[in-house]
Design brief:
The chain is an alpha/beta fold and 291 residues long. The protein is built from 11 helices and 11 strands.
Length: 291
């Protein structure tokens, strides 16, 4: 009973700490109702051929490689901010744009949030992810087109938010909580990616799989459910929270949920993640144990 009351209190006390002009996660219905908004910028990050075949009216095609790049032997690092601002401005996206990121479906939610996290890191305040992606849009019988649109070039200067990014040193020095967003099999070391040097997880890390975020239809679950998941495994919204995965993609899914959707104040995403930190022989991952 006491644990149940604690969970409910934690859910109730965590309120968004910022004002948004657009929710962090939007539905197909919301997007359809706002397609005529001149500030709206729908970024379709699917394959170009999928975009050309059918996309949301007015959507812009930008490759994921605009937002995450290989660098220093790591797979998915932040791009140079000048390159990012140029690409966005050329596409007609400005600082006041209401941005909605669209991926293929709910299974690609983490890839959508990797794009959204990069945009948030760059200082763009109003970024959202379409719940369920293109698949949810189509399933809801919303309009699609093959017409490619071109917006007038905009003005945009990035204002990086360093507090959104965790570096390896931050992970090793943190007195807060560390979250592993990978699957349970990966967390416990039963499987691992070839580019990750060690099986298992960081000692003390909380397991919170990315797959818990979406339901069977690929739609993002309710705020109450997501907050309860975090509370039930023992996470405290008031503590510094660093999230990692294998290569800096899956971790952004829970960063997006905690920071942008639930309003946690101090959350960082570690884009070097296991790929970087397991290459350090002084760091020892632990398999087959809970935390």
């Amino acid at each position: 009973m006491k644990k149940g009351i604690l969970i409910l209190l934690m859910v109730a006390l965590v309120a968004p700490l910022f004002a948004r002009d657009i929710d962090a996660v939007v539905t197909a219905d919301w997007l359809e109702a706002n397609l005529s908004n001149p500030k709206l910028a729908v970024i379709d990050v699917r394959k170009v051929e999928d975009y050309k075949a059918a996309h949301i009216p007015g959507a812009l095609s930008l490759l994921g490689s605009t937002f995450y790049v290989p660098a220093k032997g790591l797979s998915n690092e932040l791009p140079f901010m000048d390159d990012l601002s140029d690409a966005l401005a050329d596409a007609g996206i400005g600082a006041d744009s209401l941005i909605v990121v669209v991926e293929t479906d709910g299974a690609r939610f983490s890839w959508a949030t990797r794009v959204a996290w990069t945009l948030a890191y760059a200082g763009l305040e109003n970024v959202a992810v379409l719940s369920g992606g293109q698949a949810a849009w189509v399933k809801a019988n919303k309009p699609v087109t093959s017409e490619v649109v071109k917006k007038a070039k905009a003005k945009l200067s990035t204002k990086p938010k360093a507090s959104y990014l965790a570096l390896k040193a931050d992970v090793l020095a943190t007195k807060g909580q560390v979250v592993d967003a990978r699957t349970y099999d990966t967390y416990f070391g039963l499987v691992k990616q070839g580019f990750v040097a060690q099986a298992g997880h960081l000692p003390g890390a909380y397991p919170l799989p990315f797959s818990w975020i979406t339901n069977a239809d690929g739609l993002v679950k309710s705020k109450d459910d997501l907050a309860k998941y975090a509370a039930t495994i023992g996470l405290d919204p008031s503590l510094e929270t660093i999230i990692y995965c294998d290569s800096g993609v899956l971790c952004t899914s829970w960063w997006w949920i905690m920071k942008e959707y639930l309003g946690w104040a101090n959350v960082r995403s570690y884009d070097g993640s296991s790929q970087e930190i397991t290459a350090d022989p002084s760091v020892k991952y632990v398999p087959l144990v809970w935390r």
